[in-house]
Design goal:
288 residues; alpha/beta; Rossmann fold; Zinc Finger, Delta Prime, domain 3; 2 domains; 5-stranded parallel beta sheet; two-stranded parallel sheet; 7 strands; globular
Length: 288
């Protein structure tokens, strides 16, 4: 069986692949060769060579192709040709952020794959997941601490949440529960300060300063949709809750709506997330 794995969250994709591996019989599971490729940087010939190579003995190959939505028409046709007669000893997994709809070749490819859509965890489901992840690391986490993590990082960033939980566990040491204050200290301080400074740059129409902060956040592995969510939250707090006199309530709402619409566009289409983020920041700085 070969798969199309659809999710914005790299962490959830990784967990889904581990679950697929766990379903193999123990003797095959121990002999699995796992190889990852990137559709936008690796040659399709290398991907298909790996997928079409017989393993040794009782082995099995698992070939993962990340960013598969980046395949061009020629690559899609080559992939479609392979999938008409795939190797049974290879499990091919094409990872995408949103289910592709363009090109006839994609339609042919999807008919040869089992599509698995991993919906983003939201609300109570997200909170329960964070609590469970904390328990797996040996700690409880307070309800208000979970809510703050959601505000600061966003619901669609499982890998980032997991990384921050691991840091928090080390930080609290023998303390049995992660508190809101712990999250404020370890997670909120840096990101909140960066987003606040980004808000200030936007208010001052300092495009260069704003882009410098965005670049720093991206370098720290903060994903574009996380930046958009955090910025919308900060703008709402800065302009609407604290009643900043720098802009009218209507203007603030327009700015926030731009960010939210950009976030939706990233999640629902093949638009480049970084380009969409940068265009939104520049529009906000220009007053669009």
């Amino acid at each position: 069986m070969n798969y199309l794995l659809v999710s914005h969250d790299p962490y959830r994709k990784e967990k889904a692949i581990k679950e697929l591996v766990s379903k193999f019989p123990p003797d095959i599971r121990q002999a699995i060769t796992l190889n990852s490729f990137h559709a936008d940087t690796d040659k399709i010939e290398d991907i298909l060579l790996e997928a079409g190579t017989m393993p040794f003995g009782n082995g099995h190959r698992m070939v993962i192709v990340k960013n598969a939505e980046k395949f061009d028409e020629g690559q899609l046709k080559a992939m479609s040709t392979y999938l008409k007669k795939p190797l049974e000893t290879t499990t091919l997994i094409l990872e995408v952020e949103t289910e592709p709809t363009r090109a006839k070749a994609w339609e042919e490819i999807k008919r040869s794959l089992k599509t698995v859509v991993l919906e983003n965890l939201t609300g109570n489901a997200f909170d329960k997941w964070v609590s469970n992840e904390a328990k797996l690391l040996g700690k409880d986490i307070a309800r208000d601490a979970v809510l703050l993590l959601r505000q600061l990082i966003g619901e669609g960033a499982g890998q980032t949440i997991k990384s921050e939980l691991e840091k928090l566990v080390l930080y609290v040491a023998d303390q049995p529960e992660i508190t809101r204050r712990d999250v404020e200290t370890m997670v909120g301080k840096t990101k909140d300060e960066d987003i606040f400074e980004l808000t200030r740059m936007i208010t001052n129409k300092d495009a260069k300063g704003a882009m410098r902060i965005v670049s720093a956040l991206l370098a720290e592995k903060t994903r574009p949709h996380e930046i958009l969510g955090l910025l919308a939250w900060q703008l709402r707090k800065y302009y609407l809750v604290n009643n900043s006199a720098r802009v009218s309530k209507k203007e603030a709402q327009v700015k926030i709506e731009l960010l939210l619409n950009t976030d939706l566009a990233i999640k629902r289409s093949s638009i480049d997330p970084m380009v969409a983020l940068e265009v939104s920041i520049l529009k906000l700085c220009a007053g669009f």
